Amino acid sequence: MKHYQHFINGQQTSPSNGEQIEVVDPSSGEVFASIARGNASDVQIAIVAAQNAFEGSWRKFTAAERGRLLQALGRAILAHQDELATLEMRDCGKPWKQANNDVIACARYFEFYGGAAPVFHGETIPYADGYSVLTWREPYGVTGHIIPWNYPMQIYGRSVAAALAVGNCSVVKPAEDACLSLLRITELAHELGFPAGVVNIVTGYGKEAGAALVQSPGTQHISFTGSAATGAWVSAAAAQRHCPVTMELGGKGPNVVFADADWERALPSLVNAIIQNAGQTCSAGSRVLVEKSLYPELVKALSQRFSALVAAAGQADRDLGPVIRASQQARIQEYLGLAPELIAAQGSIDASAPKGGFYIKPTLLKDVPITHRLAQEEIFGPVLCVSAFADENEAVKLANGTEFGLVAGVWTRDVGRAMRMAKAVQAGQVYVNNYGAAGGIELPFGGYKASGHGREKGFEGLYGFSQLKTVSIAHH
Ligand code: NAD
Question: What are the CA-CA distances from residue 276 to residues 69, 111, 263, 322 (Å)?
Fold first, then answer.
């Protein structure tokens, strides 16, 4: 069994308390490795390493040189695709195809932000005669990145690559359930020539290592991706020392299907939007809202699809894998127990799936009232709620009827309606006649309402990891 360490200042580093946390394979429930249980002193050591790199070696790199290194890391990630996908499949229970998609997406973030680094710049402002005014986009210094377990590689890619591109140095705290691929990628970065300390990983629990990263005066920016409840705690703690935060939180994404839509074309997207990653996606399409006249036909078609879905071990590469851990499995079962009478269809668990794995039958719930907990709360499992609406007004009301506002889909052939809906829906991303659960490296992403604030992904992501300085020069 392998015992993983932190990765600090360019090397494997043992936890100062000598403690490890067991790593469980969600497909089988078996312990197969352990990670270091980081505490505040480990976090402090990593922050000092990042500060030294920021004030020393990393500062000497031009934007073009930083960009070249980031792109090289993108290529190295692809060159190690098999190894990284295998780690991710084992660590998170992801089906093989999804694990590979995550590796490719992570590589794309490093390529994208590597290319963007030298073209990200300030402006000159026409102010008054005898003055030149310009703006600089400067790094914060040490950025802290707190990452959840559902898409470790993608979220590491989108936030760390953007932070490094603008010249920050980073300390990353991955989720305790999903660290292995990130430790390997960070090691690869240093093998390629990233100076020691530019990116560091401290593994461990949120309340220990994560909280220390948020509270330390040594981090000048925190990017948090996780649940709304933890996000509120992180925001409050960071506010005590006026540390800026980006909050990428949960969602309850609606797919709104009008009767005029090409719904047969929509069908695979509606299913995939919730089945991908076993429903453990912040931007999952976890609700389908259907115009009344189409409702019976669409529920029938969705039921047929759901009945045919199969959950199996990651290696079997079926429709979906297990969920991340036993407590998550129990939580989803509890939600399903709230209203068994609403179950319209359920898929199956493959006979070959190991008995100790954390599997959930993909489940379709129909006629779910908007006020029901099932329609309001993020279940974070392969559970789709379907409800009917009478007209466009009611569609908007239902789509906006939760505390969340991350991603929404609108399906219609009427361009005017599509534009009205896109305007009326409160969400950071609106897809018309498509749906991008966790998609789009180039597309700015982030929440309205309780889904968070700040934006990552795309060129926009660079703004969040930099601060603007205005310089006014008088020459009269
Ligand atoms: P979580 O909030 O429990 O944990 C997220 C991370 O925060 C983990 O690394 C955890 O160790 C750490 N953490 C926990 N307590 C902490 C504390 N007190 N201080 C600092 N860090 C702490 O969330 P989760 O269960 O790991 O992830 C699922 C949630 O993440 C869902 O709500 C999902 O929607 C959300 N999510 C959002 C996005 C997005 O981009 N908007 C992407 C993926 C997941």
Answer: 32, 24, 19, 11
Ligand 1 atom nearest the C-alpha of 328 is 25
| Closest ligand 1 atom number to CA of residue 213 | 20
Find all residues with CB under 8 Å of 76, minimum gap 6, and list them.
188, 189, 191, 192
Mutate which of 37, 106, 146 for ligand 1 pocket (most atoms within 8 A of beta carbon): 146
- What whole-number distance in Å separates Cα of residue 238 and Cα of residue 16? 25
Whole-number Å distance between alpha carbons of 430 and 278: 22
β-strands 131-139, 466-474 pairing: antiparallel
Identify the residue whose tokens are 């998550």: 328
CA of 161 to the centre of ligand 1 (A): 19
Q: Tell me the average pLDDT across 60-65.
A: 97
Contact 170/143 with Cβ under 8 angstroms? yes
In angstroms, rounded to a whole number, what is the distance separating the alpha carbons of residues 167 and 162? Answer: 9
pLDDT tens digits along 115-155: 999 999 999 999 999 999 999 999 999 999 999 999 999 99
- pTM of the entire predicted model: 0.97
